[in-house]
Amino acid sequence: MPVDLSHIDVWIFDLDNTLYPPGSEFMALMESRMTEFVARETGLPRDQARALQKRYLHEHGTTLAGLMAHHGVPPEPFLTEVHDISLETLEPIPELSQGIARLPGRRLVFTNGDERHAARVLAHLGLEPLFEDVFHIAAADYVPKPRPEAFARMIARHDVEPRVAAFFEDSERNLEPAARLGMTTVLVGPAAAQSSAPFVQHKTDDLAGFLKTARVRETAQ
User: How many domains does the chain have?
Assistant: First the structure.
């Protein structure tokens, strides 16, 4: 049965591994850059640097937040280096563009990445014209999802009413604060079906198909 999202007026999407499939290996390239940065910053061997990178991600929401908190790393050099990778592994998905284009109301991107990264990826995928704005990590004062402060700043910046907002994410834990605020939550990705989290309301491994078939508010022609 199609999912009923006819009450939704604000559509909020994560960027990485949500608006493109994890199989593109684009995120893996960024993670490799992160490991190199952590190894250089801390002097740790690569395997230990990767373990620290993952620990900071778990404890702070992003590796960057951990580096800022424990090593005084300024955010911009990290973000510039990590995001300076080729886009050739990303391919536009026409069906996804069509699915997003049919959504009535406002559409936003909410990412832990920076503004330039979001602009590059959205433009490459042909999705940039479909979104009103991007709420990026600098706009959140470098406070990442899933911290409640990041959501509060996004909501304040864009005047979002959570009860009529849907949030699409590949990270299960980033959906929990959204659900607490009253948003409709959609977990995206190949492992979504395995989630048993009570705050995950909908799951899909095919975002384009999900958006194509969802019941949405009708708009006047």
Answer: 2
